[in-house]
Amino acid sequence: MKKINSIVDFVSGTPQFRITESFDEQSPIYTFYSQTDLSEDLVGIRSEDSDKKRVRTMDDVNTLATGDVVFSLISGSAAVIREAHHGYLYTQNYVKLSPEEKIDPHFLVYLLNENSAVKKQLLIGLQGSQVLKYSLKQIKDLEIPTLPDFEKQKIIGEIYVKQLRVQALKNRAAKQETMMRLQQLEEVSKHD
Questions:
Q1: Residue 149 and residue 145: Cα distance in Å, rounded?
Q2: Taking CA atoms, which of 17, 18, 52, 168 is between 20 and 30 Å from 185?
Q3: Cα 149 from chain centre
């Protein structure tokens, strides 16, 4: 086992309270990355478009690119950024992980989200804390198991992502079926 910070670089998000809003029409507009976006990136399915929080600023801010791995200090979960969220601004609630060694991004996400040894370390770090939020130090200190060869990582990462997508599609279908049945029941109950 070795510490994750020996094979991954970390880039913290831009502190939201330090972003100065600009009213200059020439200033770029950034969309904030959110927990909903992370969930969408993880399962590969867009949810209903909600109002996205945006800011116009000339400040130098940290943004995400397609293929980046991002970790949420709020939920303790990671995802690979999809094209839909390319260029989004990420705040201090998120950390971008840039592997130094050859690590498949989806395998890294699998490791952070599902590995029992990693999950245990994350839970121990939260004990005694009033606010359930992970710290950058806690993430950097994570000990990870010996990595399989790169080809095996790619296979595991690919299967993991596909399984999450299948599960999300099944959940969506079940939810739609429930809504349809409830609507039918409501119609039947009106006719008596």
A1: 12
A2: 168
A3: 25
Smallest Cα–Cα separation from 93: which of 50, 36, 168?
36
Dihedral pair phi/psi, residue 31, rounded to 5°: -100, 135
Domains parsed from the chain with CATH numbers: 2-190 (3.90.220.20)
- Report the 10 Å Cβ neighbour count for 57: 17
Predicted pLDDT of residue 127: 58
Separation of alpha carbons 50 and 53, rounded Å: 9
82-138 tens-digit pLDDT:
999 999 999 999 999 998 878 999 999 999 999 999 989 988 877 555 667 888 999
Gyration radius (Cα) of the chain, Å: 20
Which DSSP category does 20 fall into?
P
Q: Which contiguous run of DSSP H or E holds residue 163?
A: helix 150-190
